[in-house]
Amino acid sequence: MPIDPTDELKDVLSHYNLGELVRHKRDQRGTVNVSYSIETLKDGQRRPYFLRRYKSGIRREELLFEHSLINHVAGHSTCPVAKLHRTQNGSTFYWRADPDDVSSGHFYAIFDFLRGEDRYTWVGPRCTPQELRNAGALLAAYHTAVSTFEPEGMRAEKKILDLLEEIETVWAEAPAKSRGTAFDGFLADNFEAVRQSIAETRAALDAPDIRSLPEVAIHSDYHPGNLLFDGQEICGLIDFDWSKIDLRAFDVALAVWYFCASWDGAEDGDLRLGDARMLLSAYQQALLDGSAFPALSPDELAYLPHLISAGNIYVLHWTLADYFGNDVDPREYLIYLKHGITFVRWFDSPTNGDKLTAMLRGLPSS
After folding, report:
1. In sequence order, what are the residues at sequence separation of 6 or more whose Cβ sits closer than 8 angstroms to the Cβ of residue 5?
2. How many whole angstroms separate alpha carbon 195 and alpha carbon 143?
3. Backbone dihedral region of 153: left (phi > 0), alpha (psi from -120 to 50 degrees) or beta?
4. For burial by CB atoms within 10 Å, which of 11, 32, 234, 343 has the most?
């Protein structure tokens, strides 16, 4: 039977000046943190907020980074980002010790409540053309905003060019961890294809000039499930806990994979190049139309196919880590694994590679 969180939420709220808790509802879509939409009563008025309990093990330095990023974007752009509320001692987060074990506990934060429809998850999204264009333009606005960001703290995760080496090692060790499920069987059957994809992606990105490409505080999880919609318009950009300093082009590439890799039947893993063109054209045009931050350069566009591959590998790495590190449903994670591996096979086709390269050459550029 689920544990009633009311006392926990009331205790957290007691460290803010936001009123008394009158309602709460668990957000069922979160896969990493535990979040609630809450409503408080203060001075006779009811107000909605969003309360998050962060995953165990997150470091204070990572929270400082995430929250300083959110505060910067909220204060230096029109991006629809929820403002953080401060505790009575001025912090953007609160540490609450576990009542049964004071040596452990969790960080909490309270955000403004963003109204809008959570229309998609990261699994199986199929955005309309206007949604794709709006998502591309918003990502451009976000990158412009963070181009002047001076962070506090730091995300612990390595940058993608260095992380790929670690991912290669983790993938090599995966078969030995088999639990004998259908997930493990499919992994074993397709192990070599992914191993080769990782090696080829690392080799393609192993060039000195790539490390001189623009870096910003990337969102690193920019997908339709982290956007809120009002009709075709985007009215919310959420979930910055994967953000870190890394290649701007990797953030764009990962977004292309999330928005445009099909989950549909026999087309699972195929990159919808028409959708990718709409997303990327809107991104480029938004930055070409007088932005203080440049559009993707020819060098960034040249590396983009292999950075899209790196994005797929990045999500496969999360799939593996979550499967072996937590008590999850193997059938659910098999869907994620198959999706990533079918993309590997799509990307390995020279014909598909040529079509992707041709599409990128046709994008607006300076």
Report:
1. 24, 26, 36
2. 32
3. left
4. 343
196 lies in a domain? yes
Rounded-to-integer distance, Cα 234 and Cα 229, Å? 5
Q: Are 123 and 206 in contact (CB under 8 A)?
A: no
Is residue 118 in a domain?
A: no
**What residues have CB less than 8 Å from 185, skipping those under 6 apart?**
none
Last residue of a domain, one of 112, 143, 164: 112
The one-letter amino acid code at 101 reads: D
Q: Are residues 157 and 273 in the same domain?
A: yes
pLDDT in tens, the chain (366 residues): 567 899 999 999 999 999 999 999 998 776 678 999 999 999 999 999 999 999 988 999 999 999 999 999 999 999 999 999 999 999 999 999 988 776 789 999 999 999 999 999 999 999 999 999 999 999 999 999 999 999 999 999 999 999 999 999 999 999 999 999 999 999 999 999 999 999 999 999 999 999 999 999 999 999 999 999 999 999 999 999 999 999 999 999 999 999 999 999 999 999 999 999 999 999 999 999 988 999 999 999 999 999 999 999 999 999 999 999 999 999 999 999 999 999 999 999 999 999 999 999 999 987
Q: Tokens representing 159?
A: 């940058």
**Which CATH number covers residue 226?**
3.90.1200.10
Q: How close are the terminal C-alpha atoms of the chain, in Å?
A: 59
Distance, CA of 164 to CA of 326 (rounded, Å): 22
What is the DSSP-derived secondary structure letter of residue 244?
E
Global pTM? 0.95
Q: What CA–CA distance (Å, rounded) separates 205 from 200?
A: 9
Alpha helices in 175-214 (DSSP H): 182-204
Q: Where does residue 297 rank: exposed (0-12), middle (13-18), buried (19+ CB within 10 A)?
A: middle
Task: Indicate the burial class of 52 (C-beta count within 10 angstroms; 0-12, 13-18, 19 or more).
Answer: buried
Do residues 56 and 156 share a domain? no
- Answer yes or no: do 338 and 263 share one domain: yes
One-letter amino acid of 25: K
106 is written with which tokens?
């969790």
